[in-house]
Design brief:
With 70 residues, the chain is an alpha+beta fold. It has one domain. Helices cover 21% and strands 36% of the residues. The chain contains 1 helix and 3 strands; from the N terminus they run βαββ. Strands 1-3-2 form a 3-stranded antiparallel sheet, with helices on one face. β2 and β3 form a beta hairpin. The chain is elongated and about 45 Å long.
Length: 70
Amino acid sequence: MATWTINHFSRSNPAGTGQGDVAALLRRVAQSIDDLGDVSVQDLTFASSVTAGEDDLTVTVYYHPEPRRR
């Protein structure tokens, strides 16, 4: 049986005002992906946790450190 490993990272907005800003979180995730260089993104997950103030948002990116298919 073949096995393989996938890399991942998660990003959230800072706690406090703007924590629930989806667009800001997506920009943060896009910049993080750009910073990795040419990688193959396999999946993205989005989670939202209710807090006393704004929702706590998290995006997790799963990727391989290889050039993406074109």
